[in-house]
C-alpha cells in the first residue's frame, strides 16, 4: 500500500497539535544527534527531490542531509534543470515528478500558487522550502531551538526586529499558537507583516491565550524578553523599491545596546547574516547568540518535516 503523503506549504495548514508534534519531533532528532544516536531509517527506499530555484545554503543542505540520514536517496534540481524553463507547466511538472518521487522540497522563485500547483496530487509530498510569503520549515527550526533552550514553548517571550518577511510570517503563525507566549514584531514603518498574516496571527493568539503585538518602534522593549530575533534585511538578496530604505531600517539594527535592554535574552537569526547591517558582529558572534545552533536545528527540523510528510509519522 502507498504511504499517505502530506504536504507542508504553510504553517497555517497544520493544526496547533500537529505543529507542536512536529516541533517536538525536531527537538527529539536534535537530542538524539547530541547523544550520538543514528537517525532511524524511516525513509528507506524512498526518493526525495530538492528543487531550489533560488539560492540556499541551510535549507537545501538540511533537507538533503536529513533525507540521506533517514535512508532516502536524493535528486537535486537547480534553477536551470527542469523543462519548466522551456515552457512545461508547473502542474505537469508536479504530476510527472509525483510518479517518480516520494517527496519534493521546493524553493520557488515565483508566486505562491506555484506551490499549490506542485501539490495538486497526493502521491508526492510537497514541502515549502521558502516561498515569497512564508518560510514554514524555518519556523519549525526556530520553535525547536526555543523549545530545546527553555524546555518548552508555553510562555516564551520573543522580540522580532526587522522586516516582516517570510520568516517573520512563519514565526508569527507558529509561536502565537502556544499558550502564554508573547511575540512582539517590531518593523520599520511600511515593512510590517502582510495584513492577512497579521490577522491570522492575531486570531491564533486570541484562541491560544498568547500575546501578539506589531509595532514600529523599539520604545517598549521588555527587560524580560527571552529571545531577540532578526533576519537579513534583503531576503535572498531581493531589492526594495525605496532607494533610501537603509535609512529607514538603520534604527532597527540589533546591537549591544538593544541586547543590554533585555539582559537575559538569547539572540536568534535565521541566517545568512550581514554583520553591521541587521545585526552587529558583537551580537551575532557574542555569548548570547544561538544563531548557529538554530542553523543546525534546521537539519533536525528537516528530518521531522520529512518524517511527518512522507511517512505520516510525527
Ligand atoms: N535560513 C535559510 O533559509 O537559509 P538558506 O537561505 O541558506 O536556506
CATH topology (level 3) name of the largest domain: Rossmann fold
Which architecture of the largest domain per CATH?
A: 3-Layer(aba) Sandwich
Enumerate the spans where pLDDT stays under 50 for 5 or more consecutive residues. none
The CATH superfamily of the largest domain turns out to be: Aspartate/ornithine carbamoyltransferase
Task: Give the count of structural domains.
Answer: 2
Helix content: 25-40%
The succession of helices and strands, N to C, reads HEHEHEHEHEHEHEEHHEHH
Oligomeric form of this entry?
Answer: single chain
The percentage of residues in β strands lies in 5-15%
How is the largest sheet built, in terms of strand order? 7-6-5-8-9
Q: How many angstroms does the end-to-end distance come to?
A: 20 Å
Total helical elements: 11
- Under CATH at level 1, the class of the largest domain stands as Alpha Beta
Q: Ions, cofactors, ligands: which are bound? A: phosphoric acid mono(formamide)ester
Largest sheet, strands/sense/barrel: 5 strands, parallel
Q: Would you count the extended β strands for me?
A: 9
Tertiary shape: globular
Description:
Helix 1 (16-34) crosses helix 5 and helix 5 (136-150) packs across helix 6. Helix 6 (166-175) links the parallel strand 5 and strand 6 (182-186). The chain contains eleven helices and nine strands. The strands form two sheets. Strands 7-6-5-8-9 form a five-stranded parallel β-sheet. Strands 2-1-3-4 form a four-stranded parallel β-sheet, with helices on one face. It folds into two domains: 11-134 and 298-311, Aspartate/ornithine carbamoyltransferase (Rossmann fold, 3-Layer(aba) Sandwich); 138-294, Aspartate/ornithine carbamoyltransferase (Rossmann fold). The chain has helices spanning 16-34, 58-69, 90-97, 113-118, 136-150, 166-175, 195-208, 245-249, 256-260, 281-284, 291-311, and strands at residues 47-52, 73-77, 103-107, 125-128, 157-161, 182-186, 211-215, 227-230, 266-269. Helices cover 38% and strands 14% of the residues. By secondary structure, it is of the alpha/beta class. Phosphoric acid mono(formamide)ester binds at residues 56-60, 130, 138, 270-272.
Amino acid at each position: 500500500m502507498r504511504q499517505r503523503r502530506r504536504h507542508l506549504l504553510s504553517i497555517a495548514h497544520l493544526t496547533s497539535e500537529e505543529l507542536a508534534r512536529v516541533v517536538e519531533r525536531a527537538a527529539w532528532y536534535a537530542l538524539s544527534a547530541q547523544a550520538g544516536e543514528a537517525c532511524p531509517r524511516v525513509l528507506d527506499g524512498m526518493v526525495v527531490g530538492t528543487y531550489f530555484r533560488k539560492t540556499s545554503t541551510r535549507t537545501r543542505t538540511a533537507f538533503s542531509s536529513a533525507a540521506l540520514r533517514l535512508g532516502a536517496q536524493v535528486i537535486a534540481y537547480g534553477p536551470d534543470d527542469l523543462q519548466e524553463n522551456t515552457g512545461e507547466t508547473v502542474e505537469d511538472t508536479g504530476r510527472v515528478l509525483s510518479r517518480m518521487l516520494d517527496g519534493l522540497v521546493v524553493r520557488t522563485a515565483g508566486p505562491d500558487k506555484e506551490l499549490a500547483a506542485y501539490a495538486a496530487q497526493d502521491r508526492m509530498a510537497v514541502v515549502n522550502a521558502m516561498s515569497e510569503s512564508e518560510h514554514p520549515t524555518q519556523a519549525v527550526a526556530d520553535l525547536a531551538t526555543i523549545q530545546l533552550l527553555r524546555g518548552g514553548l508555553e510562555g516564551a517571550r520573543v522580540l522580532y526586529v526587522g522586516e516582516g518577511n517570510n520568516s517573520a510570517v512563519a514565526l508569527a503563525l507558529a509561536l502565537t499558537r502556544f499558550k502564554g507566549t508573547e511575540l512582539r514584531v517590531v518593523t520599520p514603518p511600511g515593512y510590517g507583516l502582510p495584513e492577512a498574516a497579521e490577522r491570522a496571527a492575531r486570531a491564533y493568539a486570541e484562541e491560544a491565550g498568547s500575546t501578539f503585538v506589531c509595532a514600529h518602534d523599539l520604545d517598549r522593549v521588555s527587560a524580560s524578553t527571552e529571545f531577540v530575533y532578526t533576519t537579513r534585511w534583503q531576503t535572498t538578496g531581493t531589492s526594495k523599491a525605496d532607494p533610501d530604505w537603509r535609512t529607514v531600517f538603520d534604527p532597527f539594527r540589533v546591537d549591544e545596546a538593544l541586547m543590554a535592554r533585555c539582559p537575559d535574552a538569547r539572540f536568534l537569526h535565521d541566517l545568512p547574516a550581514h554583520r553591521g547591517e541587521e545585526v552587529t558582529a558583537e551580537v551575532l558572534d557574542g555569548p548570547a547568540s544561538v544563531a548557529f545552533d538554530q542553523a543546525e536545528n534546521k537539519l533536525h527540523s528537516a528530518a521531522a518535516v520529512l518524517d511527518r510528510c512522507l511517512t505520516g509519522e510525527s
